[in-house]
Specification:
- The chain is α/β, with parallel strands linked by helices and 237 residues long.
- It starts with 6 loop residues before the first helix and ends with a helix.
- The mean pLDDT is 81.
């Protein structure tokens, strides 16, 4: 966590992550959007401490304590293939390891692919949504919407899977939830307790999840078994 976070950087980061607009945030606070836009660019006018605190409060950040609001579940949106914004947020807001799991409806079809991740770090709970558009990656490569490796714990500082036995750079089976639960997560209509119940709802290796993951990759049971045997033999050597 950054010890002396810049309010401009915090507001800019949270506006982008929250998939909202300067106009919306400014209207809630009751000031001109152009004033906020100019302030974010380092231009005049200089906003008062109270106005900045109100802007941050709208974005669920406590300026005096310099922390995200730990009493609610935050919903953030990221572009697949470009996680620089998420990395910046993790460095800004978290000082404990980030544990994550992917969530899916369980269908091997396109719409069943994991497009939601749950992140937990200390008192903070994050629902991370993947934007459903094609976008160039950080190195200019084209990222497919079908790619379910859009987010791995190895891609950001302190990241690890819910199951510590799975390496951060490998793909772990997602937690299976009903579609309406996915909708509630995406809209932020979940309490901290419900978030934690989802996060902890399935064993780290749910074999039905493994089956769904294998099917989505076009693998057979024999191929999965061969991969497991190969992995075990490497571990013994």
């Amino acid at each position: 966590m950054s010890e002396n976070p810049n309010p401009i950087e915090i507001v800019r980061t949270l506006i982008e992550l929250s998939d909202t607009t300067i106009t919306h945030v400014a209207s809630v606070v009751g000031i001109q959007p152009s004033n906020v836009g100019n302030w974010l660019k380092g231009k005049s006018p200089i906003l008062s401490h109270k106005v900045i605190a109100n802007l941050l409060a709208v974005l669920s950040y406590n300026m005096d304590e310099r922390v995200l609001d730990p009493s609610r579940v935050h919903v953030w949106t990221v572009m697949p293939g470009n996680l620089s914004l998420l990395k910046r947020a993790i460095d800004l807001f978290f000082d404990e390891p980030v544990t994550m799991t992917l969530v899916t409806s369980g269908s091997p079809s396109f719409f069943g692919q994991p497009k939601i991740a749950l992140l937990r770090s200390g008192p903070y709970r994050i629902v991370l949504l993947r934007k459903l558009i094609h976008t160039p990656g950080e190195n200019g490569e084209r990222v497919s919407l079908m790619d379910d490796t859009w987010l791995l714990p190895s891609q950001f500082s302190g990241g690890r899977w819910k199951n510590p036995e799975v390496a951060p750079n490998e793909l772990a089976p997602p937690i299976i939830l009903h579609g309406y639960h996915l909708g509630d997560l995406a809209l932020g209509r979940v309490s901290l307790d419900l978030f934690d119940s989802f996060f902890d709802s399935a064993p780290p290796w749910d074999w039905k999840a493994v089956e769904n993951l294998a099917e989505s990759k076009g693998l057979t049971a024999k191929e999965v078994a061969a991969m497991i045997r190969s992995r075990k033999s490497r571990g013994k050597s």
